[in-house]
Structure formats: C-alpha cells, structure tokens
Amino acid sequence: MDIKAQQTKLANNLGKLLRDNFGKGPEAVHVTIYEPYVVIYVSGFVSPMEQVLLNQNEELQVMTTRELLVKTLEPQITGQIKGITDLDIQHLYYDWNLDHHSGIFVGVCLDDLKADLTEGDPYPGKQAIHDRIIKMSEIAQKGPEKISSYKLSDRTLVIVREGILVAIEKQLISLGFDDTLRISKRPLEKGILRQNDDYDEILNADILDIFVDWDFEKDNSIITLILKPKK
Q1: Would residue 116 count as lying in a domain?
Q2: For residue 33, which phi and psi values (nearest 5 degrees)?
C-alpha cells in the first residue's frame, strides 16, 4: 500500500473510531505520513453535547472530558497506525481548538527525541520561527534547551522543544497534577504565540490552527502549525 492509500485508509478508520466514541465524527480527517511522524488533523469535530457545554462557556469541562477519553483511545489509535503503516508509535501528542472545532494527533515512532531526531531539513523562515518559539517559551516558563522543526508538507509544520519544564511544574507533575498543568498551559502558550502576527509573512502561509502538547516524563513538547499556503 503506497503512502497516499495509507493516509486515506487511516483517515477513514480514525474518523470512524472518533464517531463511535464521541457520538459524532469529524467532518474531515487529513493524514500526513512523514516518518518518523504521523499527523492526523481533524476538522468539524464537536458533538451535540459538547456544543451545549460550549454554549454555556464550559470549555474546561469539554477539554477535561476529551483528555480522559483520548487516553483510553490511545492504544486503539496507535494500533490503527501500526496496522496500516507498520509504524510503531512510541509517543502520541494531541490537542484541540474548540473555537475552530478542530484537533490534532501527532504520533512519533521514536523512543527518544533527543537521541534520534536531527535538526530537520531547512525551509524558508526556519530560524525566525525558532526565534519566536523560544521567545514564547521564555515568557511562559523558560527557553528550551533545544529546538528543532520539520516541515512535513506545505500545510504541516512540527516544532519540537526539549528541556522546557521549570521546578514548580516538575513538582506539580510529581504530585499527579499533570492533566491540570496540561490544560492550563495550552491556552497560555497558544495565546502568546498568537500575539506574533508575522507568521504568515515568514512562512508565506496563513496559520489556520496552532496546537501544542507535552510529554512531561520526557520533558519535551510538540507544537503543530496547520498552514494554508499563499498563492
């Protein structure tokens, strides 16, 4: 099965999995396979019950519920990826943009980002993007010990940060507050990122969505930018 066929089959299977577990599936699922990454971008994804909660400004409850549900689905998601692509996903990152009814799953088939990932191929604006991500990290907590990025396609940019947690965050994680920390950090970091309004000029593309997630045990984070190239 070629890459395009794998992407189509995985999109169909993941759409059905989400529909079976949320009561309503996404309107569209876009899959990008670029080893060692599998990026699954879903749009038009909110259930009727979630919409009721969002209308009542209960975004935190929706995010918390999704966090718990996706954790239970993670073995099925990584199993689907393995069965279709033969890629053994070691880490699965995910995030939602409830305002856009969109979400992301980023599977990484490497055990150790520090040991195995290179700096990635160059692309226009790469250093400028790194500079802005470092600045955001410094405002939110501290600058990363290492940063790398990978333009997987014209529409998908993945940025990896390593060594970003401060002492108080590590203490909260050790006390079992990792889910609370994750839900708190997402709007903070994405809000700071959106304060920079020149990404479109740097990348020659509009930014449709920004997603961020962490592996607290490994002390790393993946930021995903969904792009719309300018003509």
Answers
A1: no
A2: -110, 115
